[in-house]
Structures are given as structure tokens and as C-alpha cells.
Design brief:
Helix content: under 10%
Number of helices: 3
Distance between the termini: 36 Å
Radius of gyration: 22 Å
Strand order of the largest sheet: 1-2-3-4-5
Shape: globular
Structural class: mainly beta
Amino acid sequence: MDSEEVAGGCGGPDAPEAPDGPGLQFCCASFNQDSTSLALGTKTGYKLFSLTMVEKLDCIHESETPDVYIVERLFSSSLVVVVSTGMPQRMNIYHFKKGTEICNYSYPNNILAVKLNRQRLVVCLEESIYIHNIKDMKLLKTLLNTPSNPSGLCALSINHSNSYLAYPGSATIGEIIVYDANTLNTVTMIPAHDSPLAALTFNASANKLASASERGTVIRVFSIPEGQRLFEFRRGMKRYVTISSLSFSPDGQFLCASSNTETVHIFKLEQLGPSGVDDAATWTAYVGKMFSAASSYLPAQVSGMMSQDRAFATVHLSSGQKNVCTLAMIQKLPRLLVATADGQLFIYNVDPLDGGECTLAHKHRLFGVDDNQTEGTEPEGSEVAEPAQSCPSYAETAALPASGPVTVTLTGYSEDGGAKKGEVIPEHEFAAGPVCLDDENEFPPINWCRDGTGGGQGRRP
């Protein structure tokens, strides 16, 4: 599941300065790849929150970098990527627990999106895409002259063994280019929609891709790498909307979609067995089969509409402000998380069997004192409640002064990735070997070269 983003107060590098006031408290919000943390970019810095419990929201880090409009964390590691409106052409990579900058890279134009998994880091500009090897930040490929993509729309699968990248193949219709970021080859082109694309996301295993167009009425799911249409969900027909985020559940059985309306939709991906019979015999499946049987007697336009599935579950927010949503397992139960532009996080319980209207489990304020934080109460489904952590400032988390971070400027296409032989990313000051930035004992996302042959861009400290 890709991390999703939503524009709030700042809105991006070219947006005018937003006035202070309710609803304009943060510039961006993104859930990490497995929805275990939430990152917020604000006018005064960025914040990272842990999402392991329903009733407690722990702020695990807070920086002082102003006007952050992109902030992406790599799973549960200490690696975080930040871009601010002050320097919209520069990407900074930090080890936030040490309070140090690992490196920074500059690009020819404003950075519109950054996506990462444990194998690749992708930087999207309006008309080009840069693909880095995350282990040494070597530039592997530059995709030049991509169709105009002013919103920086792209998706990178979180499955590093299948690092698929999806991005618009046209500025006028909804074509999707699927690119293999491991082998650096185009996989397929999917004619997904008649209108330009507005949202893209892969499921966790990278065998499905969901998309929505600017009209926002139909959401489609395709098989990867074949590009065959598997599902089509109708969000609504009364009006066009702007889909702000799409996200699969960890098991890939559900897909949530939020927009600039008050409703968040959850769709269920019900597979058909070899005989064409639904694996789970439900009332919805029965009605769907009845519609399918009747479709041969109806006009094409009507039958197409009737064969499309409606939402399995819904959430109705108090207002249609910008938001980002994700589906996650928290304390062993399925939850829908919605972060809204007025600085609130809503956590809903999802009934995976019957669906319907989701119930609000808890809501948190992301700024100031959380009035909804329950003191002295054991969280639902938790055997041992960890104490809430304070939110340390960037200065408080700084370690010993680091050697100067790597600064690299990328000016355009380079067959060899622009890396100069013998140049490496510098070691951390405490490094005696490879530095593991992942808190879950996974393999390190970055290898710190010691012999001067790493091939990464930069220089030794």
C-alpha cells in the first residue's frame, strides 16, 4: 500500500502563502508504506506519529524545518525524506532519530512527489522522473519528457522485489504507464479512463493497481503486470468529485477512496471462483449476479452501470475538506484512518463481513493538546499499554555534529546515473559498519560504503 498525501495549508511549491486559521494547519499528510505511522508537513516543521494504538497517538519526532510540503518516512525506519517550499528543487534525507542529515539532492525543477520502498527512491517532477537506488542513492534512471504531470501523480509499489512504478501516460486521457523500477523497463500501458488521472495506488503484493480519473465517479482495479481490468467501482453519479486518496487494505481485499466530499467509500474486491461463482455467497454477490444475468437484455450504457459495484462500507465526515485515508490493522482489528486538513485524525472500526456505516473508534487532534486523549485507560485490544512518548524537537534529538552531508545537483539525463567512480555517501559518525535505519530489525535501507568503491553519488566526509 502506498503512502498517500493530501495538500492542506501550503499546497505545494507553487501555491500562494496560505492564511492562518482553522482548516489550514498543515501543508501535507502521508501515511507510511504499511500505515504504521503518519507524517505531517507544516508551516513550522514536520511531525511523525506512531499509529500502533487506537486511543493513544504518540508523536515520535518533531522538526523545525519550515514550510514542509513533502514528508515521507521509509516504513518504521529512521529515514525520512523532506522537501520544503523554501527550496522546492532540493530533497533532503534525514536520520531523524540521530537528528542528522544523510544527504540532499537538487533537481532541475520543483519536486512534486517522492515515493520510496526498501529498494528504490523515486522523485517526480512535472515532466521527468528520477529513479534512485535507495541503498547508495545512485541515480539509476532518468525518465525525461514524461507527459505533463503538474500534480506529481505517481505510485510506487511497497513490495521491493516487484518495484513497479505507475505514472500518467497522457495529459489528456487516463493512460497509465507501468514501469519496472528494478529492471528499468516499461512493463505495460493501461488505457484506464477517458479523463486524465487523479489517483493511483498499488496493493501490498504489487499484483493490483487501482486508479481514478479527474471525474472521480469510477474507480478501476487492474492486474499487474498484465494490465487487465479486474474490478470497476462506482463512487457516485450525481456530480464529479476530486479523489484525494486511494488505499488498499493490507490483505488487498478492500480499497478505500476519499474525495472532496463528506463521504469516504470502502469497496470490497470479491473474487470469482473458477466456475464464476463468488467465493463468499452474500446478498450483494447474489444481486450482482442477477444484474449480470439481466445485462444482456439492457442497453449497453445501462447494463454497464448496473454491473458496477457500490461501496461495501462508508464513513460520513462532518465536512468535505481535504483529507487522506488508509486502511490498516491496529490492535488486530481492521481500521479506517482519515487525516483531515483541519488537523484531526479519525479512526473508524470496519466490519469486514457486513460493511455498512463504520463506527468512530477515536479521534485525535494533531496539534496542541488532544482533548480526546484518554488518560489512564488501557487501549482497546491492547495487553500492555506503552506510555505516551513526548514529542522531542529537532534540536533535542541532534547527536554529535556530523560531517558535512552530501550535496548533489542533478542537471538532467545521464546514462551511468551521474555517479562518479569512487564517490560514496558518507558514513554516519557512529558507524562501525552498515547502519541499520530500520527499527524493526529489517535489512538496512542504506549501505554505508567504507572502501571508496560504492558507486553512490557524493563524497567521503
